[in-house]
Design goal:
mainly alpha
């Protein structure tokens, strides 16, 4: 038997230590590769795209899970916060929506839509002061933003200030004369008993889309108020027909 010297023992220990270090290095490298694959933005994009498909299918709760995955993988993925906020709105969760639109605003400070959408989430909570404030912030960035005037008009009307609301809806109509802006102003005129102006706006709204039963019913109320019972009956009949009664 060949005698084992102290030097042999030390050499064997060094060999084992080097072998262990090499194995540990392999594990660390493998872990790094796996982490890179998991956190690769391309995978965040896949999660986001899956979320978008679920939004289109109105499966908002599942879409939220995919957007969660997206921002876990890529915390600065701005559009994921926007879409998750919108999904939370659809799920009647304005508090979470506000958090997402706030984060979106931090990532994209000049994004007026983020401010408006957060404002509508505040409106859902009946937090009219913050809804008005967000509309104002958006308008400071874009003074011709019809959607912001629409938001502020709705918040002011709900807060009990219909005349200021009419001013906002008039601005909204000026910059974007669409069905909702006409309808919101008409409804506000109606609320203060100005049925002549209300009828003019209901007419404009129905020119945009005559297949809106709620506008026919609303116009019927103003027609009744001005003594046009025949016209009111016609609107109610049209509304029932559209509704399938």
């Amino acid at each position: 038997m060949i005698p084992v010297t102290a030097e042999d023992v030390a050499r064997e220990r060094r060999r084992r230590l080097l072998k262990w270090l090499a194995a540990a290095l392999v594990v660390l490298l493998a872990g790094g590769i796996i982490y890179k694959r998991i956190s690769d933005p391309r995978n965040a994009r896949e999660a986001f795209d899956a979320g978008m498909r679920l939004v289109k299918a109105t499966r908002y709760d599942q879409a939220i899970l995919n957007f969660n995955r997206t921002v876990d993988l890529q915390p600065d993925f701005a559009e994921a916060y926007r879409m998750r906020g919108r999904a939370y709105v659809q799920e009647s969760n304005p508090d979470q929506a506000i958090l997402d639109f706030t984060r979106l605003n931090e990532l994209l400070p000049g994004d007026t839509l983020a401010l408006v959408e957060r404002g509508f989430a505040h409106l859902d909570k009946k937090d009219y002061a913050n809804a008005i404030a967000d509309a104002g912030r958006a308008l400071a960035l874009d003074p011709k933003l019809a959607r912001a005037y629409n938001l502020r008009g709705m918040a002011r009307r709900a807060a009990g200030d219909p005349r200021m609301a009419i001013e906002d809806f008039s601005k909204a109509v000026e910059y974007e004369p669409n069905l909702d802006n006409y309808f919101q102003r008409a409804s506000t005129y109606q609320s203060i008993g100005d049925h002549a102006r209300a009828l003019a706006d209901f007419d404009k709204a129905l020119e945009e889309d005559p297949m809106q039963p709620h506008i026919h019913y609303a116009r019927a109320a103003s027609r009744t108020a001005v003594g046009d019972r025949t016209g009111a009956a016609e609107d109610v009949a049209i509304g029932h027909k559209i509704d399938g009664y």
